[in-house]
Amino acid sequence: MEHTGLHWLTQVAPDPEAFRETWERTGLGLMLLPAGRRWDALVVPGRLGRPAADLLGLLDTGPCGPVLADSGEENVSFLVPVGTAARWVGTGVRSAGEGTWIVVPHPGRSSRGVRWLVPPDGSGRLNDPVLLELVLHEAAAGLGGW
């Protein structure tokens, strides 16, 4: 059964069908995909990003969008609408937009290193930057101003 999140993710590849076939055939857990085509990524330190992801999941706005964590959760990345990376202003937040690539794990397999905290569901749902900013402030307040 094909994972709908996989189909959604691979649509940003230069040749989506070939990319998806290679990813499935080789069994590779991690692949590089270009940001800035269907989503940007905001990367925050894990000690702030993990509580922010938890807070996003508690909101009455429905499920949050895709969220990645690297090994040891040193960094947490939120997939957000295209253009957010160019407009985002925040201390300690890195962004990946047009012209950058990020490592993503296969949404239907476990992998070492980068993993999904919230995998893509194939719907195209992304994290709302306004809500993300609010929960980042709330998470920072919970950490004593971080």
Summarize the structure in words.
This protein is α+β, with helices and mostly antiparallel strands. Helices cover 34% and strands 22% of the residues. It contains five helices and seven strands. It has helices at 4-10, 16-26, 46-58, 84-87, 129-142, and strands spanning 30-34, 40-45, 67-69, 75-80, 94-96, 101-105, 115-118. The strands form two sheets. A five-stranded antiparallel β-sheet has the order 5-2-4-3-7. Strand 3 (67-69) and strand 4 (75-80) form a beta hairpin. Helix 3 packs across helix 5 (129-142). The longest helix has 14 residues, at 129-142. It is globular and about 45 Å long. The termini are far apart. The mean pLDDT is 88.
Write the topology of this structure.
Elements: H1 4-10, H2 16-26, E1 30-34, E2 40-45, H3 46-58, E3 67-69, E4 75-80, H4 84-87, E5 94-96, E6 101-105, E7 115-118, H5 129-142
Antiparallel strand pairs: 1-6, 2-4, 2-5, 3-4, 3-7
Helix pairs in contact: 3-5
Task: Summarize, please.
With 146 residues, this protein is an alpha+beta fold. 34% of the residues lie in helices and 22% in strands.
